[in-house]
Amino acid sequence: MIKTPTLMVWGEDDVALTKETTYGTEEFVENLTIRYLPRVSHWVQQDAPEAVNAMMRAFLSGEPVPELRWQATHDALTKLANRSHFEEDLEQEVRRLGRIEQTSALLFVDLDRFKYINDTAGHVAGDRLLVEVARRLKQRLRMSDSLARIGGDEYAVILRNVHPDRAELATDQFRIALVDTPFLHDGKQDMLSATNGVCLIDPSTA
Question: Which of 75, 83, 143, 185 is the Cys-Cys partner for 149 at CB 3.0 to 4.6 Å?
Fold first, then answer.
């Protein structure tokens, strides 16, 4: 006899079924509990299985749902939004710009020396570098902007409601924030460099 298993499905409330349920051909289940996970967006369920796994682990361990959702949408190392969360933000921004006469900019930042530092100074220094880059980029953000770590050494920024003539200037300011000060680690210092790219988003491209 197998008793009180838990079935995890997407929904809103916990429900207990007390009727006997056939399990296989000979065994029966009593007090089957169906536990509903909180509803999440389509991208979490379909495009981010690692996020679903995190939600399952946290739900089973009894962690609060808000913390669970944060873990599913953020990078654990840098505390920035992760790629899936950023893609959702970008989709929302594109839809928003389809309704109003504004221009935003999409900025990409790819560190040039991360692999070198990670290989020569070790993974601890590499992790510290990623956190430091996140901190420097975050200092340049306005309240309306979005920043995410979208890959191993790649970051992306949505600059909302920015004048087209100032998009390249803003991109250069982010670059300067990264390269102006050396990265210090274990009594050593390394100058940073990054490859930047920027594109405009407006009603004509939305």
Answer: 75
* Residue pLDDT, tens place only, 35-49: 444 444 444 444 455
List the beta bridge partners of residue 154: 110
Alpha carbon of residue 78 to chain centroid: 10
Place of tokens 């210092």: 189
Nearest to 34 by CA among 5, 1, 64: 5
> Which one of the listed residues 75, 89, 145, 153 is annotated catalytic?
153
| Contact yes or no for 74/122 (Cβ under 8 A) | no
Q: Which two tokens stand for residue 113?
A: 């020396």
Per-residue confidence (pLDDT) for residue 69, from 0 to 100: 80
Look up 153 and say whether it is catalytic: yes
3-state secondary structure of 117: helix
Secondary structure (DSSP) of 40-72: --HHHHHH-HHHHHHHHHHHHHT--HHHHHHHH
Structure tokens at 163: 């004048």
22 vs 61: CA distance, rounded Å: 28
- Whether the predicted pLDDT of 182 surpasses 70: yes
Q: How far is CA 160 from CA 35, 59, 168, in A?
A: 40, 35, 14
- pLDDT tens profile 116-134: 999 999 999 999 999 999 9
